[in-house]
Amino acid sequence: MKTNATMLPVSGRLPEDLYQWLASLPLDGATTFSDKLREAIAMLKRRHDGGVDYVEALAMHRDLARPARDRLAAIEHDCGAHSEVLATLFEHIPAIGAALQSARLEKPEDARALEAQLTRRALQLAETLLRQMLTTEAAAYDPLVVRHNAQRLVELAQRISLSPSSQGGAS
Q1: Other C-beta atoms within 10 Å of 13: how many?
Q2: If you compute the radius of gyration of the chain from its CA atoms, what whole number of angstroms results?
Q3: Which residue, 65, 116, 102, 56, is CA-closest to 87?
Q4: pTM (2 decimals)?
């Protein structure tokens, strides 16, 4: 939001539950209800307008996940456990969302660049999750969550590595 913008008074009515929710919502730099209302509307405008740059979009997607991340931090503090699997997902999913939101798709080269960026990120995520299968139990709340969900991917990778085309032969 522009800091030198002319402020206009606005009057309106909100249901009590929305008022209480917004009043208690933690928004960076917004302490008063007016600050929170301005920031909430600015966030809605950014989301509606799209075309934000990647870093702004990444910050927004991380903010959207903040409540879950904060609750997870409390759980991890209370039980003394940590999930590398969830940490990985919390890293990659906002980045994928930010890439989609900030994409400027005007010509085929833009589509190719987005495709490359999303594919690279998705495969980094898959690689990181597959690393969790190198041990008998993943660093996760459910130590078998990756093993139980990756079997088809592992089978596909094994079949690819055995195919003639992957070994430089003609197919």
Answers
A1: 5
A2: 22
A3: 65
A4: 0.72
Buried b / exposed e across 61-100, counting CB within 10 Å, b at 16+? bbeeeeeebeebeeeeeeeeebbebbbbebebebbebbbe
Q: Answer yes or no: is pLDDT of 65 > 50.
A: yes
CA distance 49 to 41: 12
Q: Which of 118-127, 147-156, 157-166 has the lowest mean pLDDT?
A: 157-166
Q: Of 118, 90, 91, 93, whose CA–CA distance to 103 is shortest?
A: 118
Q: Return d(Cα 50, Cα 8) in angstroms, integer.
A: 24
Element (H, E) at 110: helix 108-131
pLDDT by residue (tens digit) across 87-123?
Answer: 999 999 999 999 999 998 999 999 999 999 999 999 9
Q: Residue-wise over 132-169: b if at least 16 C-beta within 10 A, else e?
A: bbeeeebbbeeeebbbeebeeeeeeeeeeeeeeeeeee
**Would you call 31 helix, strand, or coil by DSSP?**
coil
3-class SS at 30? strand
Average pLDDT score, the chain: 88
